[in-house]
Amino acid sequence: EREIFPLLHRRHVFAEARDFLLYDCFTPQGQVNEDVFAYSNRAGEERALVLVHNRYATTAGWIRNSAAYAVKTGAGDAKELRQRSLAEGLGLTDAADRYCLFREQRSGLEFIRPSADLHARGLYVELAAYACQVFIDIGEVASDASHPWAELERELAGRGVPSLVEAL
């Protein structure tokens, strides 16, 4: 009830296929970890990223580019393969002063990452055996003098907190 029911209230974010993207998880050695399933989806401005590790072992790696998918070119039945980055899939801007805020559903912790970093390198993840993470409430903010998100991101250094607004 605690983990699944809240997601059922947001099922529209997971229901459509128009913005669905499946991602490869690359290990630090540069190999695709076939035991990690990662996908994102959107419904308007609502976004979600789901990670599932399907093996009895720990793992870590980068989620950056989607698996290739076919798109009609408009020339008859011709199709071409395309890929999109995680940042594109989540609708993030590539600006130095923008920060992506997101909450992990199961733990309730909130995280912050530079949007430009998500564009350039993707998202680094660590997953325990058979673990899953569902990131929701994904949004973007600008860092400025009255809202120093850049300072908070440096201070947290990747750690999650119960509330980013309170931490700020």
Would you kindly provide a written description of the structure presented here, covering whatever features stand out?
- This protein has an eight-stranded antiparallel β-sheet. Strands 5-6 form a two-stranded antiparallel sheet.
- The longest helix has 8 residues, at 149-156.
- The two termini are 31 Å apart.
- A hairpin with a 2-residue loop joins strand 2 (36-43) and strand 3 (46-53).
- It is an alpha+beta fold.
- 18% of the residues lie in helices and 39% in strands.
Quick structural gist:
This protein is α+β, with helices and mostly antiparallel strands and 168 residues long.
| Radius of gyration over all CA atoms, rounded | 17 Å
* Main beta sheet strand tally, sense and closure: 8 strands, antiparallel
Report the count of strand segments. 10
Average pLDDT metric: 92
Structural class: alpha+beta
User: How large is the count of helical segments?
Assistant: 6
**Beta-strand residue percentage:** 35-45%
The helix fraction, in percent, is 10-25%
SSE string, helices as H and strands as E: HHEEEEEEHEEHEEHH
Cα end-to-end separation:
31 Å
> So what's the overall shape?
globular
Low-confidence stretches: none
Order of strands across the biggest sheet? Answer: 8-7-10-3-2-1-4-9
Please tag this protein with its features:
alpha+beta; two-stranded antiparallel ribbon; eight-stranded antiparallel β-sheet; 18% helix; globular; 168 residues; 10 strands; single chain
